[in-house]
Amino acid sequence: MSNNLLPIAKEGFNCIGVAFLAFIFFSIFDFNFLGFLSFITVLALIFIYRNPERMSPILEVKSVVSPVDGTVISIEELENSEYAYKIEIDSNYFNVSLLRSPLSAAVKSVELKRGARLSKYSPLSKDLNERVEIVFEDSFENSVKIKHMLKQSFDRIKVDLNTKQKTIQGARYGLMINGITTIYLPQNFRVNLSIGQEVNASQSLVGYFS
Length: 210
What we know:
3-stranded antiparallel β-sheet; Glucose Permease (Domain IIA); elongated; 2 domains; alpha+beta; single chain
């Protein structure tokens, strides 16, 4: 897991570079309309891959923060499951795409599955879409599972984590453009979110372990 303090996420350098070269090419050969489109594309990509520096709030040791920017679309209680709560957060192109660690913990497992990028309204999306599942476990043996799944996106999920790696709450660990994040939490957790709430990665409190 590497730190990138530049205003643009390193994962976007290639896309932005290609769009910028296209702008120069079209400008040299006086393809004005294509040059204008490529310039707009450069600006759009800079916005999508923006990498704002954020100050994490001072919270209790057993706190969990949102790993993504987006809108809370569901909060469910689970029965007959390893986890007691499931929270879904919908992220779109206007949200910052960086993924951040929800708590200070060790990475217990990382499972990445490449796949399709269907609309979330497609009945096949939950089975076929690209996703990654990450399990974090803190020093008190509290476990949190995070699942990131792409919707319709032009870029793949990128995760820079390894099993047994230590993370710090709020640290960047990857990137997802336009996706759904599901947070699974155990029974001893107090949820501090509501449906429809806008959340920011590393800054919005999900809740506390009791």
